[in-house]
Specification:
This protein is an alpha+beta fold.
Length: 97
């Protein structure tokens, strides 16, 4: 957690059937991404997915590290006191499905 947002460690799996979080792997959120890893499509889809889960604009999510690999750090800019509860609620709801 940062003063101006939250950083999420992600293990990205592109070319999946749909974009969704599927658990935790090696301490990172494992996210399957429907988009291919071509011209930044999967990175954009990942940022959009996490931004939607956090309730922020997609422009407020960015890849801080790992744009060319599966292990990424994604920055979500905004008030951490609102982002963290939204992310927790989103992922708890997914786990219940």
């Amino acid at each position: 957690m940062r003063e101006d947002g939250v950083t999420v460690e992600v293990k990205a799996v592109p070319r999946s059937r749909r974009t969704q979080a599927v658990g935790v792997q090696d301490g990172r959120l494992r996210v399957q991404i429907a988009a291919p890893p071509h011209d930044g499509q999967s990175n954009a889809a990942l940022c959009g997915y996490l931004a939607d889960a956090a309730g922020i604009r997609s422009q407020a999510a960015s890849i801080r590290r790992g744009s060319g690999g599966a292990r990424k750090l994604v920055a979500l800019d905004g008030d951490p006191s609102t982002i963290v509860p939204r992310l927790i609620a989103h992922f708890v709801d997914l786990a219940a499905e």
